[in-house]
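Late entry, written up from scratch paper. The run itself happened at the end of the previous shift, but nothing got recorded in the book at the time, so transcribing now.
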Amino acid sequence: MAWGNNIPNDYKFAELMSDVKAVYSNQYSFIVLHNNLVKNKYWLTGIGRSDCGALIPDEIHLALVNDKPSAVYATYNAYSVLTESGKIYSWGNANFGGVIPPQVKDFLNRRKMEYICATSQAFCAYNADGDIITWGDSNYGGSIDSQTLDDIADDGGVYTVVASNGAFCAITQGRKKAVAWGNRSYGGLISGDALSVAARGKIVLCRASNTSFTIISKAGDIGCWGAINKAPLTETALTDDSVTDSRTGSSDVILNKSVVLGIKNYMKSLEWVDDEEPINASGKSRLKSHVKKATPPVSMTSVKTATGSELDLYSNDGAFFLIARDEGYNTEFVTAWGNTAGGGVLNGDISETLSAAKVLQVVSTNGAFGCLVDAGKTKGIVVVWGRSLQQSDAGSLPTDPEIKSLLNRDVVALYSLKMLPGSIYQPPRYVDPAIAAVLKDGTYVVWGGRIKGGAQHLIG
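Output as recorded:
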């Protein structure tokens, strides 16, 4: 079922929205991928605004009949579909990547592509051979300048690509260097000390927020740029406990000494045996190689270790959260940076709780983070930080004592409701994000923006 603006009352849901394999959406429409052909003609059906992707062109339907879609990707007002044979078709608003230019189409037709990622207004396709191509709004990553293409090609092609709301960051196949393009306000230009981290390469973690990127190398060097650039990124640059974002004038702590040195020291504890794997004190390999050529999509948000440990990098609209856990989910290291009000700082209580607990799950809203943890014999505790209920987010627990007590134990899963950021840079507006907790008894607790009373306990 679907409801809301642009959903017609007479839509044939039983006929066109059944046998569903996956559902995709942009700002104004939905696309359904079916397990079997609908009416022997359609792998995909749409609902919503026709000019924003709900109306799939007949020629695309025809091309897909004998070349089954594997996945659909969305910008704000357009879609692209990747088929099992590696072909790509786009539709929707041309300014948002809904029309593939002839030269791009020719490039795609001569190659088998394997992965697509998207900013708010542009698409990027690439494959395991290192080929890469973009289309859509050039101001939001829809075109790559020749120098950036040369930098990628000279290092073996692209390994993987990460997207913010308005820019792309590619990690190269060879030395695992980072390059970026797109809207500068969204991280399209690597700046400050992040330039040297990106150029040295050996990047093992890369993640985007709404307007910025973070990269971390095997040596533990961290680079951060975009809307939260100009942070101290090397030990020689660490002269103050905090820095000011020169573009916005914000006094928020972006990266302080404890964050930079903490990451550096933790990564140093994994002694490198060669260019690919670190070892621990016993001589056993600790980190599986994350630098070999691999078939996309390659996740740069997580590094799995040979012992079962894992480093995971999370983000929301303006902050980042890094956690390392052993195979039993026990925390080995934890830190955060970025917008302080939006979860970029762990206060003492939060840091202590996470450091001493088993962290089972991490979710984020636009301006907050939430963790599901086990602490000693108490299972299923919810820990949150960032923008509070008073700020229309879920970074504080409900104030109602009865509802709050339900989050102190026996929670089995967390889900987040994250609202779509605007496609043109402006100060963040946190409108209606929320977190839902599933309790052991099958009921739910939801809290955050536009939740009646700030929080509710839902039964049945």
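Residues 189-345 form one domain.
(Scratch paper discarded after transcription.)
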